[in-house]
Amino acid sequence: MSSIAVITGGAGGIGRAIAAKLAESHSHVVLVDIDEVRTKTAVDELNRDRGSDNNKFSMAICDVTNPDSVAAMAQQVLSLGAVRTLVNNAGATRVDSLHDMTPEAWRRETALNLDAAFLCFHAFEDALKESKGCVVNIASVNGLSVFGNPAYSAAKAGLIHLTHLIAVEYGQYGIRANAVAPGTVRTPVWERRVRENPRIFENTMEWYPLKRAIEPEDVANAVAFLASPQAAAITGIRLNEYKFVNLTLTDIKFIDEDGRQVVTVMYQFAQFDILKLKAERFTRKY
């Protein structure tokens, strides 16, 4: 019996790594992307790496923000067999601040980072019911706190909630839904940022317990686990990497000031910015 994995944003670094990993547990993997040239290159290279098993991967060109395009893609994929795993990985961001955000950019980014996942799930809903399959949504730590990229962050927060909605509503059909929310992943997207700040990885890693960036393969391993029988009883969860922003209580003092009890709280605050990091201490009185 066929067992197909579908990965949106399949031509990118994370998408390719997920595809390579899921090929170990699925009979066929479909890379879905809007960029035909990059997707064909990815599929050709992945198939070549498989050696004699060189028909493991195929591609479907699709604008995942367009319902008609998604419906056509789903029809193409379903002609190959039973879909067991859907990975909503497509995503991108361009605008760093809310001040610079335009209505058009907001709609564009939320469409790609949130609406697309809904459209793809809707298109494969019946197939996933039949296979008692799973959905893995690639979110971000941006969906958990404020790190800039406002539309992207709001959409990723929505994607995490969509994951919970699918898990709760579709668990009765045997469908599982989980999310992976990585932080800094070493992909080509970061090349521009490295050019602007060659020390960005070194500076950013200060705030990570493991002191290293995430590799695409790390994300792929998490996805593979959530899509595996070992996670058969797991649904509605979010695997996230250590957050950049922490507000840590470091000191509390009760002070008698002018006959009033005042609580002075000292915080240690670390804030992540796209191109710089800053840490500061501040005191508040209550």
From TrEMBL:
SUPFAM superfamilies: NAD(P)-binding Rossmann-fold domains. Pfam families: adh_short_C2. Keywords: NADP. It catalyses: a (3R)-hydroxyacyl-[ACP] + NADP(+) = a 3-oxoacyl-[ACP] + NADPH + H(+). It comes from the Eukaryota. It is an enzyme of class 1 (oxidoreductase). Residues 3-197 form the Ketoreductase domain. One of its GO terms (biological process) is monocarboxylic acid metabolic process. GO terms for molecular function: 3-oxoacyl-[acyl-carrier-protein] reductase (NADPH) activity. Its EC number is 1.1.1.100. InterPro entries: KR_dom, NAD(P)-bd_dom_sf, Sc_DH/Rdtase_CS, SDR, SDR_fam. PANTHER family: 3-OXOACYL-(ACYL-CARRIER-PROTEIN) REDUCTASE, 3-OXOACYL-[ACYL-CARRIER-PROTEIN] REDUCTASE FABG. Belongs to the short-chain dehydrogenases/reductases (SDR) family. This is 3-oxoacyl-[acyl-carrier-protein] reductase. It comes from Rasamsonia emersonii (strain ATCC 16479 / CBS 393.64 / IMI 116815).
